[in-house]
Amino acid sequence: ASLILITLGIIASLDEDTTNPFIVIGFVFAFIALFLFYVRIFSKRKYKRTIDEIAEKYDTIKLECTYEFSEESIKYWDNEKKIEFNWSVFKYYSIYKGYLVIALNNSLIESYLFEKNETEGDEYEKLLEFVESKLEYREIK
Predict the structure, then answer these.
(1) Rounded to an integer, what distance in angstroms lies between the CA atom of residue 87 and that of residue 70?
(2) Tens-digit pLDDT profile for residues 7-40
(3) What is the rounded CA–CA span in Å between residue 127 and residue 12?
(4) pLDDT tens across 43-71, in order?
(5) Which residues does residue 85 pair with via DSSP β-bridges, in sequence order?
(6) HSE of 51 in the Cβ direction (CA atoms, 13 Å)?
């Protein structure tokens, strides 16, 4: 939009000797666009740095997590917390690139991932059968 306004301002000012406000508005828009681009790049860098620090923290404390599946709920506990979710809060499951995805509250952000390679093949198949009996399958694209 700023390039269009600057171009219109230059074309319109060729006919007249006065300055055109389109040029000023175009430069203001260009400045705002560059500023937002700058903020976005540095916020991504800050976010990545924060995530790396958190991941390093959890790697150093060797967080041991345990899942327990029952007919009523899924229980999760580790060194810091213990959570229990009823099956009713999970909306669906899917399989994506070798991961079993169990979606909480219809959101992929709040989902649990189980990698086929992390668990033994027989254990993974039992887990998959159990989840199939509890939740509906939905394709993730």
Answers:
(1) 9
(2) 877 777 766 666 677 777 888 888 999 999 999 9
(3) 70
(4) 999 999 999 998 888 778 777 788 888 88
(5) 74
(6) 6
Place of tokens 């508005």: 25
3-class SS letters over 31-88: HHHHHHHHHHHHHHHHHHHHHHHHHHHHHHHCCCCEEEECCCEEEEECCCCEEEEEHH
Q: Is the CB of residue 90 less than 8 Å from the CB of residue 67?
A: no
Rounded-to-integer distance, Cα 69 and Cα 129, Å: 12
Rounded Cα distance, 53 and 59, in Å: 10
CB 30: neighbour CB atoms within 10 A?
15
Residue 46: its pLDDT value, please?
Answer: 94
DSSP 115-127: ETTTS-HHHHHHH
